[in-house]
Amino acid sequence: MSQQYGRIVCPRLGGPEVLVVGQGNLRDAGPGEVRVRVLAAGVAWADCMMRRGTYPDQPKTPFTPGYDVVGVVDQQGSGAESYEVGQMVMALTVRGGYAEYAYVPEAELTPLPAGIDPAEAVCLVLNYVTAYQLLHRAITLRPGDTILVHSAAGGVGTALLELAKLDGIRVLGTASKAKHALVAKLGGEPIDYRNERFEGAVQRLTDGKGVAAAFDSIGGWHWLRSRRCVRRGGTVVGFGSQGAGKMEAGASAVLSWLWPGRRFTFYSVTGVKKRHPEWFREDLAMLVGLLAQGRIAPIIGARLPWQKAAEANRMLEEGSVQGKIVLLFG
């Protein structure tokens, strides 16, 4: 009888309640593959999109969600010789991370120095790489620039606040009133979008000049509102929203044409990783260095046992948690 391991399964599309605890057969790592014993898995908005059937590259049910993981090498397949058994590693799995074991191509792994908290490290793989590449790969910013960040108290939002502060960039961040203290603590200037139109707040806080860039993960008509905040020559950067991925091919050119003097661009971490895999490796390694030096400190809003993945998804959709939600494995 084959050995089994625990995992979360999405047997059908729907709300968080469809996620159930299941099992998988523990197999050997294949050629060029590494079997990773998962220590921490991040909970991402993309997981919720897949569960509801709105992700651009939608997997068929049943599937195991899980976009990003940190773990230790448990077994190497033939030809996989870069990592030692027991070595800590990180990976952008996209799917399969909500499991006690993950099977990852060796080339997709990034080493992690021993002694780093796996829960903090997993925040880097998706959230901080996204934030760093938004600031440094998607557009060009200079110290002293002012930017607008929506959902500033979320996983990517808090990462943007930390990294922008290191670069000397001023951040205006939309968040509900209860999350303003965190935004301010991380160096941002909070905007209560529920009680004030953020467009007016941006104009007031910039003396009518507008921002150099607006980072908008909400999408749709919200992009048009963000456009009103951007100064001439500035950029609206769309990312992570439910409709954005399907629009990536044509949205940038069309919206830039519709907005004379301003530009629209769409960012996808998986799209950039596919085109420039070396960027992902370089940027993640650099972020690991910042974490090891104590220059960044990811905000973890909740650490939950992996069996509570349904609750974690519900918390994320409700927006009740500040920072990143992390599932932990024993």
Could you please describe the fold and organization of this structure?
Helix 2 crosses helix 3, helix 2 crosses helix 9 and helix 8 crosses helix 9. The chain has ten helices and 15 strands. The protein is about 35% helix and about 30% strand. Strands 3, 4, 5, 6, 7, 14 and 15 form a seven-stranded mixed beta sheet that branches. Strands 10-9-8-11-12-13 form a six-stranded parallel beta sheet, with helices on both faces. The chain folds into two domains: about 140 residues, Quinone Oxidoreductase, Chain A, domain 1, CATH 3.90.180.10; about 150 residues, NAD(P)-binding Rossmann-like Domain (Rossmann fold, 3-Layer(aba) Sandwich), CATH 3.40.50.720. Helix 7 links the parallel strand 12 and strand 13. It is α/β, with parallel strands linked by helices and about 325 residues long.
Strand-and-helix sequence, N→C?
A: EEEHEEEEHEHEHEHEHEHEHHEHE
What structural class do helix, strand and pairing data support?
alpha/beta
Low-confidence residue ranges: none
| Count of helix runs | 10
Count the domains.
Answer: 2
**N-to-C CA distance:** 24 Å
Question: What's the CATH H-level superfamily name of the largest domain?
Answer: NAD(P)-binding Rossmann-like Domain
Strand content: 25-35%
Principal-axes geometry comes out as: globular
Q: Mind telling me the C-alpha Rg?
A: 20 Å
Give the CATH level 1 class of the largest domain.
Answer: Alpha Beta
Known CATH architecture of the largest domain: 3-Layer(aba) Sandwich
Mean pLDDT: 94
Q: What's the CATH topology label of the largest domain?
A: Rossmann fold
Helix content: 25-40%
Count of beta strands: 15
Summarize the main sheet: 7 strands, mixed
